[in-house]
Amino acid sequence: MMAGIRPGLLYGLLAFLAGAVLGTIRDLALAPSIGSLAAAVVEAAVMAVLVWLAARYAVRFLPVDARRESRAGMALAAVLLVLLAEIGLGAAFEATGLAAQRPPRGGVEESIGLLLLAWMAAQPFRVRQEG
After folding, report:
1. Tens digit of pLDDT for each residue in 14-27?
2. Counting Cβ atoms within 10 Å, is residue 42 exposed (0-12), middle (13-18) or buried (19+)?
3. How large is the angle between the packed helices 5-25 and 68-96, nearest 10 degrees?
4. Taking the mean position of all CA atoms in its chain, how far away is CA 18?
């Protein structure tokens, strides 16, 4: 499990950064023109591919003989990093007043985010090590 922590932190960082960029595009460009639900679906489709690519990249840093425990460590580290970063970013938005400028999200949009988190947790078990 410990062998998966570093690749998991890399994977989580890449996923969080992709989400931060796409979330900004969703909130500022897509949601006002196509609606928040459609924007969330478009963002989720792009995020699913980017998360898969991030996992393919990060899994290279697992030991060659990585077992399920290492992949579980990778998934756990990535999910925890993303959740903690999201909490920190949300707190910063609240403290600065930016949260009030953000479009509200309904239950469906929140569910899409949870599905993406589950997708992210599954990828270390799904992708193969190259080379």
Report:
1. 999 999 999 989 98
2. middle
3. 40
4. 7
